[in-house]
């Protein structure tokens, strides 16, 4: 059930990190003996809300440089999986490992572990400028470097001219790019994208795809939840399909396209999308 | 004309203090969505610390610094100890807790220090400087005006230009999202309370030597006026607190000067009621504050 790396090129050791000491040596990883420790490994994850089991024994892993997509019908548990990884919901059982070590229980520590996330609802701050948004994620470098880093990130997303605009005055596609820039500003090592293409037009989706590929090529692991099936299957290295909180299929986009169970559960319903 | 000038100048100095205290209420409102009715009682508690330290060391400035530090610590204790447990479902919960705090603090002060009004010496001369035969402003009032405006400018810089200020604003606006961005949202709320308590204590300490005197209830009036200012300006708006404070200060000074001191509190309440009738959210309120 676990995702495997798409190529040997990504088997290189992860970049040194502050918490490298807590990471087991690559020679003896706990989950996947043939591969280096995945950046994110989810194993036997079960989340229940009262009597409702939102996730049932879900497992997947994302390697450095890999793009893994979680797809599935509404209510399949995709966002719940994100929330569990972020420490926003407490799992009933199962393990969530970042570089082989347990993920922090508090969301505010995720950034320290190189984990960034975008939200379905964007979660932008009305009244703050575009630049403020990119300067907010902690930890920030001291002094002038913070501003320079933020400006460079805005330029990368074509937002340089909008830096001083209050964010609520921007059109939706630009707001969406602000949210992405905010996630990417600290060069995260694991990027969680919750419906990044939602509400975007074709050109914006193409630009988004290029950005995500670029980020992954830089060694960042990307976990993606998305309804736009063509976008997902064109972008992801591996796809994990959830239905009613269970993993019903996992594999390459090509394999997923031909999977009968997926067809029945999900893709068939998306014919109009 | 001479009289008008004098009343305007002292009104501005007093108004700056009202603005400062109102700003402290705005700070807490923005950080925690609580109208802190205990702000006055917390400030007077800090003023007693300042008074005791000044009596001990003989230095007004050491007393002032100790009072501000005590206020910040009290803000920390109140936020961590009680206010954190206020229900977010209803604003009433925080209000009731705050009123309880007022009773506890004022009773404790009454037991420890008694109800008598203690005179507190001002660090500067309180008699007005006369320029060309016209009395303008006492050196102490000038000091009050400068300190109040400087602190407000400092707060504007803190919130507008620094990383800490950005985090304070973000955590107040959307704590959950802020956490995902690495902001320690709970710590930001605590810092907001500490900052606010210190600002309120400063306002009280500035007004106690000339106006209020020191007893356990001496900030009650200040709180009522500042609350009126904050509501008039819009609880969400620092600019509203500043303008509202100056307007109320000058209005009170003019009413006191021309109509008599007993009319002034009534004038403030008339202003409060008038504004609430016309603009329930306050003159400077942001749109979301009115619909909230």
Biggest sheet architecture of chain B:
2 strands, antiparallel
The CATH architecture category of chain B equals Orthogonal Bundle
| Tally of discrete structural domains of chain B | 1
What is the H/E string of chain B?
A: HHHHEEHHHHHHHH
Total beta strands of chain B: 2
Total number of helical segments of chain B? 12
Structural commentary:
- The complex is a heterodimer of chains A (273) and B (292).
- Chain A has 273 residues and is of the alpha/beta class.
- Chain A has 2 domains: 40-114 and 188-271, 3-Layer(aba) Sandwich (Rossmann fold), CATH 3.40.50; 124-186.
- Chain A is 27% helix and 22% strand.
- In chain A, the strands form 2 sheets. In chain A, strands 6-7-8-3-9-10 form a 6-stranded mixed beta sheet, sandwiched between helices. In chain A, strands 2-1-4-5 form a 4-stranded antiparallel beta sheet, with helices on one face.
- In chain A, helix 5 links the parallel strand 7 and strand 8.
- Residues 1-33 of chain A have low confidence and may be disordered.
- In chain B, strand 1 and strand 2 (134-135) form a beta hairpin.
- In chain B, helix 3 crosses helix 8 and helix 9 (220-233) packs across helix 10 (238-259).
- Chain B has a two-stranded antiparallel sheet.
- Chain B is mainly α and 292 residues long.
- Chain B has a single domain, classed as ABC transporter involved in vitamin B12 uptake, BtuC.
- The interface between A and B is medium-sized, with 25 and 19 residues.
- Chain A: Residues 1-38 are annotated as: Disordered.
- Chain A: Residues 40-269 form the ABC transporter domain.
- Chain A: Keywords: ATP-binding, Nucleotide-binding, Transport.
- Chain A: This is ATP-binding cassette domain-containing protein.
- Chain A: InterPro entries: AAA+_ATPase, ABC_AA/LPS_Transport, ABC_transporter-like_ATP-bd, P-loop_NTPase.
